[in-house]
Amino acid sequence: MVKRLSFVVLFFPVLLFGQKKLTYEEYRLPVTVDTSEREPLRAMCEFVGQRDSSIYKKRQSWRQRNYNDDWSLDTYNKKLKTIGFSITISELTCRRQYPFDLWKGDSLYVSGLSRFSFFFNDTTHQFIILTSVENQNKPPNFNDIIITNNVVKTNPYSYYHSYFYKNGILLLSDEYRKQSVLFWDIHNDKDTVLCEYEIKFEHPEFIQKNLIVKNTDWIFECEEKVFINGKDIGKEKGYSKIFDYSYIDDNPFYFYEKNSLIYISYNNKSLPHKYKKVLHYLCCGPSMLNPASYNKMVCFYAQKEDGNWYYVEIGLYK
């Protein structure tokens, strides 16, 4: 039977020493696991929905620090004006929010941009814009295009994530049952498949997939596998699963499964904690129980071998 209490039962602070002190804190949750899988999730979602400030104080604080997003037209234009370009709000009527115009000096370069992704290389002053342009001569019809300093071309890719990478764009391209990491070289106008993974599940649209670019590395996660620059690191390390790859203070953090237990790797070292289960890849309402990553911390919900469920925070707070 599922039992719900109104307070945190257990609190453990643990310090892990290295170059910096990584703080581990766990709170035993008012949920038992004597019933089916669905009931603990329901009870945990109800508990999490209460947002007890005493539990989530650090989480809320670091969430705010993580999302100081200064990307705006002003930010774009500060970069673009160094090479004679600018972006303005368009006077065109568009069916998808308000559109934008890209100018090269006093000349209109491309008009009617809608919901664009902007990349700028501060060293080479090369920019790339992934966007859609409405076809004014047809009923709701948008053309996906790629814009650079000297090229405007059709974007042939259906992409899930995109990043400026070296001299081009790294794309996570979606196809039915298949995910491909592509690199488009803007100088040579060529694309190369760097990694390809075929999903074997019946409903691939619900599979967690992610692409991260960090320094000169790219990390592709799909279906509890992680590829770094195309290499399956789980296979190399002998792990049966790797999931929720992220960074704390620029050091890699991820969960991995070995011998049917879940462990944590931080900065390429295993932490002294193990779990029977760590909730992840949940969709819809229960997705609030998935691990959350911030600049300085990761928080998650896990079940230990004793059967108890815990809310856990790991972070660098100083």
Topology overview:
Blueprint: E1 11-16, E2 22-28, H1 38-49, H2 53-66, H3 73-80, E3 85-89, E4 100-104, E5 107-120, E6 127-134, E7 142-148, E8 152-154, E9 159-165, E10 168-175, E11 178-185, E12 190-198, E13 209-214, E14 217-222, E15 225-228, E16 231-232, H4 233-237, E17 241-248, E18 251-258, E19 261-266, E20 269-275, E21 277-278, E22 292-293, E23 297-303, E24 309-315
Question: How would you sum up this structure in a few lines?
Answer:
With 318 residues, the chain is mainly β. The protein has helices spanning 38-49, 53-66, 73-80, 233-237; strands at 11-16, 22-28, 85-89, 100-104, 107-120, 127-134, 142-148, 152-154, 159-165, 168-175, 178-185, 190-198, 209-214, 217-222, 225-228, 231-232, 241-248, 251-258, 261-266, 269-275, 277-278, 292-293, 297-303, 309-315. 12% of the residues lie in helices and 48% in strands.
Overview of this structure, please?
The chain has 4 helices and 24 strands. It has 318 residues and is mainly beta. It has a domain of 83 residues. A hairpin with a 2-residue loop joins β10 and β11. It is elongated and about 70 Å long. The N terminus is likely disordered.
How much β-strand is present in the residues? over 45%
User: How many H/I helices?
Assistant: 4
Shape: elongated
Low-pLDDT residue intervals, each spanning 5 or more residues: 1-15
Q: H/E order of the elements?
A: EEHHHEEEEEEEEEEEEEEHEEEEEEEE
Summarize the amount of helix as a percent range.
10-25%
Broad structural category: mainly beta
Mean pLDDT: 79
The main β sheet shows up as: 6 strands, antiparallel
N-to-C span: 41 Å
Q: Could you tell me the radius of gyration in angstroms?
A: 23 Å
The total strand number stands at 24
